Backbone:
């Protein structure tokens, strides 16, 4: 996979505005899913089929308007509850709201409801598709903040099932590393090598301890990375060493990984930073993305061919605008700025 920092350049910003009109279809298009293999609807009797599709500039349909229509073409889902976690799903993406709902989003249509877990008095902190999602259609969510942290398995149309309970925590992360369920809660990371999606996840193995307050896990191939907050600030790291620290940032969200770059969501900084890697070590300074444009970016994932997708949490601690909270393809920051949320 190419570098995230290179791929994000494909979605450029000119004079403080994102330009996505001719760049979204290739890197981020819907993948086959439930109901997506059906053929087009038949033509009603008496109505001849069109000979060709009208050109975009020939259509008379006015642009969509309404309270949940965002004028920014980089925004692909609006009016969400705080979008604390996002995850790639082929060429589409999952968005998990803190209140328990999970949606599938893409650039080609409205969000599709997948299901919901009950966070009780807590909140959802992470979401990940099963390694065999194309066959089993299962998702896994981490719920924190209400007694023991819980990993919930969710199938469309079925009640969620608790597959693991871990130590109480207020934040965490979840991912599959080489198809093994891996969970970070509090300051520890564990894996469940014997879990195959059926029954309960048991006999956890410790991957890392005392790494800080974990806020996200991300993977590239067999490599696992952690986003966390320590007494030295926000960090992104592997299980055994810190790769970069942000001393001025006391919050962190999700992370995204590629072969030669990492990205970290910085909610209080209202941006995501990308960091180039060489041999697993940082190369140069982090590059800010979308700084000040969408508010508190918390969820973060690489989708499709590595385009970065962010989820905002402006309804919980930010300054929401009418279309918040949102899922947005992150443009590269360009000089000037101003708050594009308005």
Residues:
């Amino acid at each position: 996979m190419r570098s995230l920092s290179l791929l994000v350049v494909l979605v450029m910003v000119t004079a403080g505005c994102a330009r996505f009109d001719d760049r979204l279809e290739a890197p981020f298009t819907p993948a086959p899913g439930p109901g997506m293999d059906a053929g087009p609807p038949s033509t009603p009797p008496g109505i001849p089929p069109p000979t060709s599709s009208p050109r975009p500039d020939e259509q008379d349909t006015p642009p969509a308007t309404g309270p949940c229509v965002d004028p920014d073409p980089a925004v692909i889902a609006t009016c969400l509850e705080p979008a604390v976690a996002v995850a790639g799903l082929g060429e589409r993406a999952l968005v998990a709201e803190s209140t328990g709902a999970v949606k599938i989003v893409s650039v080609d249509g409205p969000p599709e409801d997948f299901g919901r877990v009950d966070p009780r008095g807590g909140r959802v902190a992470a979401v990940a598709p099963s390694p065999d999602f194309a066959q089993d259609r299962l998702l896994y969510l981490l719920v924190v903040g209400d007694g023991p942290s819980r990993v919930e398995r969710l199938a469309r149309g079925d009640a969620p099932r608790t597959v693991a309970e871990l130590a109480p925590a207020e934040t965490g992360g979840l991912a599959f590393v080489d198809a093994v369920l891996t969970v970070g809660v509090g300051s520890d990371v564990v894996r469940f090598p014997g879990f195959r999606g059926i029954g309960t996840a048991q006999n956890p193995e410790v991957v890392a301890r005392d790494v800080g307050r974990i806020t996200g896990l991300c993977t590239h191939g067999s490599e696992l990375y952690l986003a966390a907050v320590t007494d030295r600030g926000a960090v992104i790291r592997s299980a055994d060493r810190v790769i970069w620290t942000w001393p001025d940032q006391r919050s962190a969200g999700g992370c995204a990984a590629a072969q030669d770059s990492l990205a970290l969501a910085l909610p209080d900084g209202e941006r995501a930073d990308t960091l180039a890697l060489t041999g697993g070590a940082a190369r140069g300074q982090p590059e800010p993305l979308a700084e000040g444009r969408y508010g508190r970016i918390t969820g973060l994932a690489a989708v499709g061919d590595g385009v970065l997708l962010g989820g905002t949490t402006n309804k919980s601690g930010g300054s929401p605008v009418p279309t918040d909270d949102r899922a947005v393809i992150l443009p590269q920051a360009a000089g000037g700025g101003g708050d594009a949320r308005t």
